[in-house]
Write a structure and sequence with these properties.
With 156 residues, this protein is of the alpha+beta class. It folds into two domains: 31 residues, no CATH class; 108 residues, Up-down Bundle (Four Helix Bundle (Hemerythrin (Met), subunit A)). The longest helix is centred in the middle third of the chain and has 67 residues. Helices cover 66% and strands 13% of the residues.
Length: 156
Amino acid sequence: MGAFFDYDYAFQNNNFGSLFSNAYPYSFVGLSLSMPIFTGFARTNSLHRAQLQGQLLDWDEVNLRSAIYSEYTSALASYKSNLYDLSSTKENVGLAKRTYDIVELQYQQGVVAYLNVITAESNLITSEIGYLNALFNLLSSKIDLQRAMGIISVNH
């Protein structure tokens, strides 16, 4: 909206030589009002774009929730699997220890050769190494599970 005012002189005469001898003043006052009738669908497009961005944020939230749940279930499954592996390797260590003790006793009584003692001892060491690896895997998966649950944070 705006207002304007103009005051000016108009010079008129039938003879060109005396054109500027008679001055006739004139003035006018006015108001200007502009109102957009058609905006070219800009507001409609920006509203539609905002709605689409809102939907995109909703889908991003669903995707994030799904990723968190997937990470948690994967970490929990890995932890349970590694816990089972630890218990079975612990049982294997017990069996290998008992086998080693029996073979060593048989060797001391002269029933079996020394090669059987070495084989039983090698099997015992292998099962103990397997137990330590299973323990490491269990602890590693426990850390992954705690991170997925949000209990601890791991900085990269």
